[in-house]
Every structure is written in C-alpha cells, then in structure tokens.
C-alpha cells in the first residue's frame, strides 16, 4: 500500500508542470471571462461596470446572431455527416490488400498535413479560376452568398476526411475476421455483415469521431476567416466569428464574452449528449 502511494505521488509530481500550465492558459482565463461577461467592458478601459444579465438578454434578442447560428449549425452537421460517412466508406474500401493500397491511403490522408491556410488558398484558386470555367458561372462558390457555406464545407471535408478514414480503418483492424467468416457461412450478405457486425463493433470509433467533428464544427472559425473573412457580407460568418468580432473590432468584450460562454455551454451540452448516446451502444466482443 505504501509503495502504491509512493508511485502515485511520483506520477502526480510529473503532472504538476502540465497542470500548472493548463491552469494558467485555460482555467484562469475561463473564470476571468465569466466575470467579464457580466460587465460592459470594452476590452481596453481599466474600469468597467457590472450590468448583470443585460448581455445575455441582448444576445437572445439580437437578430444579427441568427445568420451566424444558421451557418454554424449547417457547417457542423454537414461536415460531421460527410466526413464520417466518407471516412467510413473509404476505410471499408481500403480494408483489403491490393497493389497500391498504401499509396492510395497516403494520398487521401495528405490534405491533413497541409496547413489550413494553404488548403484555403488552393480552394480559393479552384473556386475563382477553375469552377466558373467548368460550370459556366460568373463566380465560384465562395463568391456567392447562397453557396459560400457549401464551398467552405467542401474545403473542410477534403482536408479532414483522411483523418476519419485512419480512425475507422484502425477500428476495422480490431474486428475479428472469423466473425465475417461465420456470417458468410450463415448466408449473410455484404450489406447485412456491414449492418450487423461492422457498425456495432465500430461504436468506439463513432464515440470518438462524431463528437469530435461535431464539437469542432460548432466552434468553427478558421475556415471562414481564412477563406472568406466571413463574406460575402456576413454570409459565411459563424458564431465563433461573431464572438471574435465583438471581442476585438467592435470593442464590446463583455458582450462578446457572454456570447462565448453561451456557445461553450451549448457545445459542451451537445458533445456530452452525443458521446453518451454512442457510448451506450458500444458492445464487447
């Protein structure tokens, strides 16, 4: 017992620097932000007044937040669905041995190692110079308010589907091959095997991937900022950009911080709910 206590103490000692750093850059700013959310601070002035729940009331009555909310939900659910479905299908398709399979995996995963800025520049060129020629339009997807979010979703899916493929491919490697052999002997087809064996036994991968992309999508900032800076107009502005604009260009840090806390609470609620949903459906084998 004494030796176990000593080992735990040593382990905790090694964690202290990481815990201190995490507290300094995450926990302390978070609680500091909670205080600012109930003020009218402009982000610069050394003084500010407490305004109670006024910022919260303004947020829920602000019609300018409707479009960012719609854009955020569209991006989050679209990328979560497309990245996971395409990643799973690619993993299943590449879960066989044929000549060049490893090279093909590399090509699919390669966009993940490209910086987001470079990926956005590549697709901005495709949308502005190649897309209009192919489809005989005056502007690309990013230049049209009605299609700009679709264009950003395509960039995100192209860049991130390789990571989802790798995760699902790793999950497929843990499924015993004899299960598929037994199912084939019993007369089960490919679709039935996929539905009755692959999907249930891949639930741990779903538990990781779907909340990950859903949470990332709900706080999406970088794709819209790099590709369009929220334009045309505000047609690609997300809630994270909405928070950023009030924190910095508009100098309404109190209101921006309240928006950030509401967004954080919503993301936490959704991701916990989805994680619990999939975790309950995990099976042991």
Provide structural commentary:
The chain has 285 residues and is mostly helical. It has a single domain (64-279), classed as MetI-like fold. 72% of the residues lie in helices and 0% in strands. It has helices at residues 2-36, 54-61, 66-93, 101-109, 116-135, 148-173, 177-185, 190-201, 203-218, 222-227, 239-247, 253-279. Helix 3 (66-93) runs antiparallel to helix 9 and helix 9 (203-218) runs antiparallel to helix 12 (253-279). The longest helix is centred in the first third of the chain and has 35 residues, at 2-36. It is globular and about 75 Å long. The two termini are 34 Å apart. The mean pLDDT is 90.
Task: Name a few traits of the molecule.
285 residues, mainly alpha, MetI-like fold, 12 helices, 72% helix, globular, ABC_transporter_permease
Topology:
Layout: H1 2-36, H2 54-61, H3 66-93, H4 101-109, H5 116-135, H6 148-173, H7 177-185, H8 190-201, H9 203-218, H10 222-227, H11 239-247, H12 253-279
């Amino acid at each position: 017992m004494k030796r176990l206590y000593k080992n735990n103490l040593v382990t905790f000692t090694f964690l202290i620097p990481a815990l201190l750093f995490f507290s300094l850059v995450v926990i302390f700013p978070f609680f500091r932000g909670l205080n600012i959310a109930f003020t009218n601070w402009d982000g610069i002035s050394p003084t500010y007044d407490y305004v109670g729940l006024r910022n919260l009331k303004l947020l829920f009555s602000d019609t300018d937040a409707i479009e960012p909310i719609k854009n955020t939900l569209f991006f989050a659910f679209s990328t979560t669905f497309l990245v996971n479905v395409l990643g799973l299908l690619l993993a299943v398709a590449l879960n066989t041995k044929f000549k060049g399979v490893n090279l093909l995996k590399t090509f699919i995963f390669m966009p993940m190692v490209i910086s987001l800025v470079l990926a956005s520049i590549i697709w901005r060129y495709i949308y502005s110079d190649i897309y209009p020629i192919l489809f005989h339009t005056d502007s690309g997807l990013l230049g049209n308010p009605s299609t700009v979010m679709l264009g950003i979703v395509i960039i995100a899916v192209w860049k991130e589907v390789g990571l989802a493929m790798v995760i699902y491919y790793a999950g497929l490697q843990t499924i015993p091959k004899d299960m598929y052999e037994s199912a084939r002997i019993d007369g089960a087809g490919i679709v039935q095997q996929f539905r009755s064996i692959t999907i249930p036994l891949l639930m741990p991968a779903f538990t990781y991937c779907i909340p990950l992309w859903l949470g990332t999508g709900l706080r999406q900032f970088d794709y819209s900022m790099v590709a369009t800076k929220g334009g045309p107009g505000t047609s690609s502005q997300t809630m994270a950009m909405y928070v950023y604009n009030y924190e910095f260009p508009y100098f309404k840090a109190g209101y921006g911080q309240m928006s950030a806390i509401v967004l954080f609470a919503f993301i936490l609620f959704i991701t916990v709910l989805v994680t619990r949903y999939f975790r309950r459906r995990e099976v042991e084998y």
